[in-house]
What does this fold into?
Amino acid sequence: MANRPVFFAIIVACALLLLACTAGCTQAAAPGQGQTAEQKQYVEVTVTQPDATHIVVTYQGGPNMQTLMELETMITDSTGKNKIQSVGSRLATTPITIRGTNTIEGDFAGTDHVVVTGYLSDGSRKVMLDTTI
It folds into this structure.
C-alpha cells in the first residue's frame, strides 16, 4: 500500500504530460514563425492543360511575392523536346503580376514534364513547381 501514492503521482504526471503534448501539437504556428527561409520564399504556382496544344501556368502570389522577378517554364513533351518560356525578367526592378498567366502553345498530346523556376530579386532561383501532366 505504500507504493499507491507514488503510482498515483506517476499516472497524474503522465496524464499531464500527454495533455501538454497534445495541446502543443495541435496549435498552428503563427505566420512566419517556425518556417525555414526556403518556405518563406515559397510562391503558389499552378499548371493546367486545357487541351493537347496549350499548357497554362498561373502565378497565385505568396508570402514574399515582391521578390519574384521572373518565372521560367520548361516543358519536356512526350517526345523529349523542350519548350522554354518566361514571364517577367530577372533583371527587372518590379515583381511579376500576381494571378498572371502564361499560356504555352505546342504539341502536348502525351505526358508532359513541367518545371517552373522562379528568379528572385536577390539573384537566387528556386524551383516553384516540378510536375507531370
